[in-house]
Write a structure and sequence with these properties.
By secondary structure, this protein is mostly beta strands. The protein is built from no helices and 3 strands.
Length: 75
């Protein structure tokens, strides 16, 4: 397989899966490139967040964790 860049398509729901965002495509790096971070920023408000993640690579892949940074908003 050629050493091509692979990607993750990420969509999210802010209402428990009733409505979904458009897919956001992010690079997950080339074959052999490890510890690649994928970030989504400025996603707005939501109460019941859910995420769908699809990966283009046909090889084995693992999701090692997720981090959410919450910042207060003025109402």
């Amino acid at each position: 397989m050629p050493d091509t860049d692979h990607f993750a398509d990420i969509s999210y729901s802010k209402d428990g899966g009733r409505n979904w965002s458009n897919k956001k495509r992010r690079s997950i790096g080339k074959v052999g490139q490890y510890e690649q971070r994928v970030k989504l920023v400025r996603m707005g408000r939501g109460r019941q967040w859910m995420f769908k993640i699809t990966v283009s690579s046909p090889r084995k892949r693992d999701l090692l964790g997720g981090v959410l940074t919450v910042e207060p908003m003025d109402d």
